[in-house]
Amino acid sequence: MSALPKTKHYITPEEYLAFERECIDQKHEYFDGEIFAMSGASFRHTLIAASLGRMINNQLFERNCSAVSSDLRVNIPETGLYTYPDIVVVCGEPEFEDQEFDTLLNPILIIEILSKGTENDDRGKKFKNYRRIKSLQEYLLVSQEEIHIEHYQRQDNNVWTFKEYTLPEEKIILTSVNAQLTLANIYAKITF
Fold first, then answer.
1. Which residues, at least 6 apart from 22, have a Cβ–Cβ distance to it below 8 Å?
2. Model pTM?
3. Consecutive sets of 10 residues in the chain, 192 residues long: mean pLDDT of each?
4. How far apart are CA 62 and CA 58, in angstroms?
5. What is the CB neighbour count within 10 angstroms for residue 83?
6. Domain count, the chain
7. Residue 56 covered by a domain
8. Phi, psi of 35 (to 5 degrees)
9. Buried (b) or exposed (e) across 156-190, using 16+ Cβ within 10 A?
C-alpha cells in the first residue's frame, strides 16, 4: 500500500503578510501561494551590502532618492512575488502596498548579492519577476566569490541591456539615480 501524496496548503497574500509581520526571527518570501524561508547571509555578503548601501546613499544624500537594505519587502503585484532584495533604491515618493509601509511597490534600482543558493534564482525567476516592475530601471547582480558584477539596464521598448565588470578600477554608472560605483570600493574589505 502506498502513502497518499501530501497536499500543499496554499495561503493568500493577506495570510502571508499577517504571518510575516508577526515573525520576528526570520524573513520569508512568498510566491504562488507558498512561503519560502530565507537563509542568513555570509560575512562577505554583509560587507558588500554595507559598502554598496553606503556608497549609493552618500551620492543620493541631497536628492529625493534613498537606498535601503534587505529589511524592506518588495511586492510585484503582476506576478504575486513578495521578496527582500539585498538593496533597493526608490526615488520620489515611495509607493507602498498598504498602510503598514513595509512593502514597496516602486523601486527604481534593485541589487542582489549572489550566493550559491540564490544565484540561479536571482538570474532567472526573480529577474523575470523584477522586469515586470514598471518603475525598475536597473538591476545589479554582485558576486561575493570574485570581482564580478552584472549590470542590466532597461532601455526603450522594454529592452534590457547587459554589461559585466571584472576589474577593480572599473566604474559602474547607474543612470537611473545618477550615481557611480567603483568595483575597488565595493570589494575593498573582501579577501578572495
1. none
2. 0.92
3. 57 95 91 90 94 96 92 95 97 95 97 93 95 97 97 94 97 97 96 87
4. 9
5. 23
6. 1
7. yes
8. -105, 140
9. eeeeeeeeebeeeeeebebebbebebebeebbeee
